[in-house]
């Protein structure tokens, strides 16, 4: 049985957000920052690697300063393309610069319950249910661990989450919840079970890790150590900057790009210095802080521009990109959520960002909503259709059909119409009913989206994970947990 996932590929629409000269200026500023200001690496192993390669290391402050040639030479070793393997090879995601995949977002702490509609703390069963719905939704190409399993032990929470996704989906899993050495070792062991041994992970990486930086110009020690372990065995790893204008980054967008770029590029260079050729990706979700409160916005014109600009930077370094897109600042699925979802995902897609994140989230990636997930998927489908552009050839010009109909006729009975009618986009949630039908029911997209999610959760049966593998994963997780 074919199990499709939807991706944007071979686009006809294109956008230039930064000129070649502007990209070079940001790159030069980035190298200046790393060399003269430095980036904080609170990891003994990371500091040793930098020191052995000739960087200047301030052991007391854990700040690394590196010459431009050290950074640039390291970045040349990054592989420009590779596949994110899925449990089902039909659903592998090609990171080749010519595909855009949609993923769920990660680490939400609350869920709008699919049955009661009430907001509550997230738990492991939510990871399970969201994974099942995502597995049965073709617009979702891969998983980010969607919400935090807060009913599991802290030291093994990330492991419970990825095990649960593998038990309920055959798509690729990417997580930002593995940030310690014990968890990383266990996650690698679990991933190896799926592909027949650790030695095969480089060929079939069914897991990828995303690690958040600590802006401005810093990293988390546990995340660095976990990333180094992953890079050693060929698990794709990326560093995500969330530098925000006004607070953790300069007020200007160019300055914020330079700060975030320094964080990501310094971390990426570290992995290449340790393990040349390790698969890596650029990750970003930069924003602007709200002028009134200083809070993370999760939406707005700056976010949309950052989404496009960051892909230009990742293309400059010739590595794939995982880009925050849909995670709106709206508190419920509404006008704001739709506006921010459309603009952010379109801007990131038109420059061909490899991975789009944020599907299903409200309130700046804090609250999961099934209705929002389904409507975000519809937005992605609309953009998928738009990015195909208009095909102009003998068949699509339809001259024979036009001649057959002539002036004053209609095209409904034409064979050409029957042949091509299903190419017309058909929405699930856009309201095209007569006004009288709406007036009678007073329902809308949110109702239909929630009903579709409920139906998928009830009816979709994911391919089961081998019980022996599941049992072995449980044993691995148990060994990590505190006695």
Would you spell out the secondary-structure blueprint of this structure?
Layout: E1 8-9, H1 20-37, E2 39-40, H2 44-52, E3 56-58, E4 63-65, H3 68-75, E5 82-84, E6 93-95, E7 99-104, E8 110-112, E9 119-121, H4 124-135, E10 140-144, H5 157-168, E11 172-175, H6 181-195, E12 207-212, H7 221-233, E13 237-241, E14 244-245, H8 253-274, E15 280-284, E16 287-288, H9 301-317, E17 321-324, H10 335-350, E18 355-359, E19 361-362, E20 367-369, H11 370-387, H12 394-397, H13 399-405, H14 415-420, H15 435-441, H16 445-459, H17 467-480
Parallel strand pairs: 7-10, 7-18, 8-20, 10-11, 11-12, 12-13, 13-15, 14-16, 15-17, 17-18
Antiparallel strand pairs: 1-7, 2-4, 3-4, 5-6, 8-9, 19-20
Descriptors:
8-stranded parallel beta barrel, 4-stranded mixed sheet, 483 residues, alpha/beta, TIM Barrel, 2 domains
């Amino acid at each position: 049985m074919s199990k499709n996932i939807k991706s944007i590929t071979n686009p006809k629409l294109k956008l230039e957000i930064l000129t070649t000269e502007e990209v070079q200026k940001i790159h030069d500023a980035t190298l200046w920052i790393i060399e003269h200001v430095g980036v904080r690496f609170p990891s003994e192993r990371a500091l040793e690697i930098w020191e052995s390669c000739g960087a200047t290391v301030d052991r007391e402050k854990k700040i690394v300063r590196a010459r431009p040639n050290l950074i640039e030479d390291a970045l040349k070793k990054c592989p420009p393309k590779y596949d994110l393997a899925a449990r089902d090879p039909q659903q592998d995601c090609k990171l080749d610069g010519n595909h855009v995949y949609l993923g769920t977002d990660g680490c939400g702490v609350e869920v709008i319950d699919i049955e009661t509609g009430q907001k509550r703390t997230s738990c492991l069963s939510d990871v399970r249910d969201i994974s099942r719905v995502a597995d049965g939704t073709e617009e979702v190409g891969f998983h980010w661990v969607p919400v935090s399993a807060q009913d599991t032990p802290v030291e093994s929470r990330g492991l419970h989450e990825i095990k649960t996704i593998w038990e309920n989906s055959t798509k690729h899993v990417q997580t930002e919840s593995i940030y310690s050495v014990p968890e990383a070792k266990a996650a690698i062991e679990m991933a190896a079970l799926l592909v027949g041994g650790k030695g095969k992970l480089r060929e079939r990486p069914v897991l990828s890790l995303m690690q958040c930086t600590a802006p401005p110009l810093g990293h988390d020690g546990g995340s660095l150590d976990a990333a180094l372990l992953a890079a050693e065995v060929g698990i794709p790893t990326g560093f995500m900057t969330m530098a925000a204008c006004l607070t953790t980054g300069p007020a200007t967008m160019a300055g914020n790009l330079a700060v975030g770029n320094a964080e990501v590029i310094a971390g990426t260079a570290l992995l290449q210095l340790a393990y040349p050729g390790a698969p890596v990706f650029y990750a970003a979700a930069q924003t602007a802080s709200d002028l009134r409160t200083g809070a993370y916005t999760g939406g707005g014109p700056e976010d949309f521009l950052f989404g496009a600009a960051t892909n230009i930077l990742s293309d400059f370094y010739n590595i794939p990109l995982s880009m925050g897109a849909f995670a709106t600042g709206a508190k419920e699925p509404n006008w704001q959520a739709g506006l921010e979802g459309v603009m952010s995902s379109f801007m990131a897609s038109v420059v061909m960002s490899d991975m789009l994140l944020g599907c299903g989230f409200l309130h700046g990636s804090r609250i999961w909503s099934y209705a929002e997930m389904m409507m975000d998927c519809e937005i992605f489908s609309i953009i998928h259709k738009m990015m195909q552009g208009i095909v102009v050839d003998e068949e699509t010009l339809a001259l024979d059909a036009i001649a057959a109909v002539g002036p004053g006729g209609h095209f409904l009975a034409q064979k050409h119409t029957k042949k091509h009618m299903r190419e017309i986009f058909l929405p699930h949630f856009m309201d095209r009913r007569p006004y009288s039908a709406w007036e009678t029911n007073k329902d809308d997209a949110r109702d239909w989206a929630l009903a579709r999610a409920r139906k998928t959760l009830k009816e979709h049966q994911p391919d089961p994970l081998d019980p022996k593998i599941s049992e072995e994963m449980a044993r691995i997780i148990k060994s990590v947990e505190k006695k």
